[in-house]
Design goal:
CATH class of the largest domain in chain A: Alpha Beta
Number of domains of chain A: 2
Oligomer: homodimer
Largest interface: A-B, 38 and 38 residues
Number of strands of chain A: 16
Shape of chain A: globular
């Protein structure tokens, strides 16, 4: 993996991550394909939309169909028929957020599957093994995603564990896949700083800010960004995990973040909420009953080119499967277009203007979430 | 509307129905788009699959979003963005099968919506009005779909009502849309003959056999085909309503039926049952867990070209939306290919061979059904 910064505009940066499976222009948004599919879309749809990378969940794919099965079938790319880059998370977040009766031990986490209650164990060694079998292009270290709120002592112990596990992951690093380290430290400045220092001193291909989007107030999340970004190496991609709110993205990019993932566009789509250049709209509203216009006249997506708000409302109210597909195509196109314009604004030295323009649009409550 | 028979092979016929929105090669299969969408697919998908006509349900579209709304938005084609022919049923079948507390009167049927219990009235006059507003290319007379079982006296009264209503529909016929008459008569030979005679004497652009696929045993359904087809005009399309079982289709085509509709391929797809050249398969079966092959190596559909049984099984077990889409694309392609080969076999004078070949494949239980 190679990372080149092409342009800077204050702290914002536009660059490109080069992988064996193609380039990823940054700042980049990664659609979330939890089970090996971005919900309601196929890989050809993602390409039409312009997605250059997708994120898949190690935890989910480990449980079903199993990483050994995927390995036998030629790896994740072949399994899902997606030949562009894939990033897999390490499973750390899901082990905490989804599984039952988890027990954190020195070597990893013992937990019960949210699907069938079966008992499993994943630690740094297992996470690396699973991610190797999946054969993603970018893999993540196994961390403890410190919950919010966490007392100082808990957060300290948690970050120490994350550092220990990060060392183990690094020791198992083969160089075939890019490996990103994850910074924890909860809401404490000194712990964030300490975690950043420890993770960076181990040395990774990229660095992520984890332990955000776990229920903390927005100012604390912004705080984590503000504390961590100045400490993160300039020449490596910086990834803010699980954040997808437009205003949050603007804040993060203004501090030099390069990568994002979030289920916001996709989950909202399935709930009938569409992103437009004038804010969010709820397609079920009566005002759209006889509206012949598309959701966003400025949007060139398949949905906006072909269908009216009236039809989209009709499909949504009838719980038609096509509703989820068309809404998802629109929302992801919106995100891809937003990121493309953002990259251009950085290249043109116009990011401040871009920032102000988009900050002035009300997108409602955050809804950052990493779980579909 | 124009109908030309191109080839005959015994009683089987291959022809073309010409409409202002394009031709329909017969024998034709019409995918069912109940609410103005073939479940899980968009209009572009249907075109890729080779569908030349789709069926939409008057009853459903009348209730939601309402025919007046669709009319205001430029008609059904524009509303759903499908520029090829559409056939709308008259609502007769759904009024009986879906609605609550229906009461049959001389002028039509009073019923309660299955959606919200609201009271409505549809008779021949209303059915023609609604279908005119929807602006389908082919519309159906409003009939009483005689239930099974029905006593002789009930069946007689029912067919008399259907004839009266057919006359009213004909009297409202503007010529802008093709109008098909529906033959009833339940399971009684003389009543089927009488209904055929009465409906044919009114004179329509095409003729349908109704009151089948309502729970009757297969031999009685075959009986209705055998009784009616010799009486139906040779120079008009013949439509067997609601039948989609492969063996039933073969029987009907061998008796000169030209048009079919059924939810079999689409509903089965969503339930994980796929049609292949070797019979039906259930994609959830363990045997497919690590199977890198497509559902049907002989199939050229998007699903078979791009995905393995292992991935399709994974998507189905995870209830992924993409599962429904990929399975539906496959099953409808299977039907379109089956009908294309059948037409070719008729043109080549090889229908008997085609018939025997496909009759030898076990497709399991019928599952004919007109309701998604």
């Amino acid at each position: 993996m190679e990372f080149n910064i092409i342009s800077r505009d204050d702290n914002a940066r536009a660059g490109i991550i080069k992988t064996g499976r193609g380039g990823i222009n940054t700042p980049a948004f990664m659609p979330v394909g939890t089970n090996g599919t971005v919900k309601a879309l196929g890989p050809d749809d993602l390409k039409s939309i312009g997605a250059e990378i997708m994120l898949c969940n190690t935890y989910h794919l480990y449980l079903r169909p199993g990483h050994e099965t995927i390995k036998k079938l030629g790896g994740l790319h072949r399994f899902i028929n997606w030949d562009r880059p894939i990033l897999t998370d390490s499973g750390g977040f899901q082990v905490y957020s989804l599984s039952k009766l988890r027990k954190i031990e020195k070597e990893g986490v013992r937990f019960q599957s949210h699907l069938d209650g079966s008992t499993h164990f994943i630690g740094p060694k297992e996470a690396m093994e699973i991610q190797k079998a999946l054969n993603a292009d970018i893999v993540m270290t196994f961390d403890e995603c410190t919950p919010y709120p966490a007392g100082y002592d808990y957060a300290l112990k948690s970050l120490e564990l994350t550092t220990e596990w990060a060392k183990i992951c690094k020791s198992l690093y083969s160089g075939e896949q890019a490996l990103y380290g994850i910074i924890q430290g909860s809401t404490y400045r000194d712990l964030r700083e300490r975690s950043a220092e420890e993770i960076i001193s181990i040395g990774f291909d990229g660095y992520a800010i984890g332990g955000v989007s776990v229920g903390e107030p927005k100012d604390l999340m912004y705080g984590a960004i503000d504390i961590c970004t100045p400490l993160m190496p300039d020449n490596a991609p910086r990834y803010l995990m699980g954040i997808g709110d437009i205003h949050d993205i603007l804040h993060a990019v203004s501090h030099g973040i390069d990568m994002f993932d979030c289920v916001m566009p996709t989950r909202n789509a399935r709930n009938g909420t569409l992103f437009t250049s004038r804010g969010r709209i709820s397609i079920k509203r009566t005002e759209f009953r006889e509206d012949p216009n598309p959701p966003d006249p400025e949007c060139g997506c398949y949905t906006c080119r072909n269908f009216s708000n009236a039809y989209l409302r009709h499909l949504f109210l009838n719980r038609e499967i096509l509703s989820m597909r068309l809404n998802t195509i629109h929302n992801l196109t919106f995100y891809m277009d937003f990121f493309r314009s953002m990259r251009e604004s950085i290249k043109d030295g116009q990011f401040k203007r871009f920032y102000r323009r988009w900050m002035s649009i009300n997108f409602g409550s955050s809804g950052n979430s990493v779980e579909e």
